[in-house]
Design brief:
About 45% of the residues lie in helices and about 15% in strands. With about 400 residues, the protein is α+β, with helices and mostly antiparallel strands. The chain folds into three domains: about 5-90, Butyryl-Coa Dehydrogenase, subunit A, domain 1; about 125-235, Beta Barrel (Butyryl-CoA Dehydrogenase, subunit A, domain 2); about 250-395, Up-down Bundle (Butyryl-CoA Dehydrogenase, subunit A, domain 3). The radius of gyration is 22 Å and the shape is globular.
Length: about 400
């Protein structure tokens, strides 16, 4: 087994790293904060457009879509560097990684020009209208209704956990267009202008900071949407849903594995330093054992990802993605929990000791523990991943 890349691939990596070092905007230019996953300050728009023009936004795509026709292995090392250097590739992740690929796969030429390209260039942003109060993991249970009336749809219903909806220009919205067929067969996708009358957005305050909000409730009351905004065929939205989530998971394991390695490296460094109470985490045998186990599991996850990618590059089926999604999010949650428990009284006061903060990340570990639950939900809940693994990989019967 050769766990290295050839010279051509390393040259591709070096070219990208050199470009980043000469083009990444300095910190003093990034003063305006990014308020949500659909908020694009001017400097963020300019940076994304710079990546697009240079072919580094989505390198596996052709130049007209912000790429350079990179091979699968070249794309892999690109995402390795993105994760390792924490390079902000784009600030509307659902627009860049889920919605734009879906429009390119299923949309009309006009939709590609009107929505996909401006999203790639950082000119507009999207939110993703999937989850509802009674249809979270079970997307097929959605109830938001779209009735076709002449050359327009009239939309009524509600979405929830809609990231960035209060800043998004458009919503890539899954709606029910035929209630009289099996639930998977009556779903369609509409692109909805978020400035349309009848749309109400209510941000949901974050548990970790009541002054921050990315999630939203979105209410639709007699919202009129042109029929030309239908993506794909009427009542065939379920296939788009599968494709959308597949785009999201494609290289997600790289960022997850790299973030875990980074957390573990920082924990090793902080564990050997005395905290505010004079004790070292390294002297706690339970913590040390848990950290060693997390290190081994993070390494196993990384190499499982490489194995899955090798299969994908050869055109083989790769069941590893669902395993990696489950494994990475649950390992991250457990690591944050064990660290918080080891901090003991310090975890109750987020300002008590530097030990609660790791490396350049200002987020205290107790806060990271609260945030970690989101990773077990976004992109497919852990429960759903268990079902997928059981049924599609292990061949177990449905309940």
């Amino acid at each position: 087994m050769r766990l290295s890349y050839d010279e051509a691939t390393e040259a591709f990596r070096a070219e990208f790293v050199d470009w980043v070092e000469h083009n990444l905007p300095p910190a003093e230019e990034r003063t305006e904060p990014v308020l949500s996953s659909a908020h694009l300050p001017d400097w963020a728009r300019a940076w994304q457009r710079r990546m697009f023009d240079a072919g580094w936004l989505v390198p596996g795509w052709p130049p007209e879509y912000g790429g350079r026709n990179a091979t699968p292995v070249q794309q892999l090392v690109y995402f390795e560097e993105i994760a390792r250097r924490q390079i902000p590739r784009g600030f509307n992740p659902q627009g860049l990684s889920i919605i734009t690929p879906s429009i390119l796969d299923f949309g009309t030429d006009e939709q590609k020009q009107r929505y996909a390209l401006p999203t790639l260039r950082g000119e507009i942003s999207f939110c993703l209208g999937m989850s509802e109060p009674d249809a979270g993991s079970d997307l097929a249970g959605l109830r938001t209704r779209a009735e076709l009336q002449g050359d327009q749809f009239v939309v009524n219903g509600q979405k929830v956990w809609t990231s960035g909806a209060h800043h998004a220009d458009y919503c890539f919205c899954f709606v029910r267009t035929n209630p009289d067929v099996p639930k998977h067969q009556g779903i369609s996708v509409l692109i909805i202008d978020m400035s349309t009358p009848g749309i109400s957005v209510r941000p949901l305050a974050m548990l970790t900071d009541p002054n921050e909000a990315d999630f939203n409730e979105v209410f639709f009351t007699d919202v009129v949407v042109p029929a030309e905004n239908l993506v794909g065929e009427l009542n065939h939205g379920w296939s788009i849903a599968g494709g959308s989530l597949a785009h999201e998971r494609g290289m997600l394991w790289i960022s997850s594995a790299t973030a875990l390695e980074r957390d573990i490296d920082q924990l090793i460094q902080t564990a050997i330093r005395p905290g505010a109470d004079g004790r070292r985490l390294a002297d706690d045998p339970v913590f040390s054992s848990g950290l060693a186990r997390a290190y081994m599991e993070a390494q196993a996850m990384k190499f499982m990802g490489y194995r899955g990618f090798a299969k994908f590059a050869r055109g083989m089926e790769s069941p590893e993605h669902s395993i990696l999604k489950l494994y990475g999010s649950e390992l991250g949650r457990r690591l944050a929990l064990e660290t918080t428990e080891a901090l003991w009284p310090l975890s109750l006061d987020l300002d008590a000791a530097p030990l609660t903060v790791h490396g350049d990340d200002p987020t205290p570990w107790p806060t990271k523990y609260l945030i970690s639950f989101a990773n077990t939900i976004a992109g497919g809940t852990s429960e759903i991943q268990h079902n997928i693994i059981a049924e599609r990989i292990l061949g177990l019967p449905r309940r």
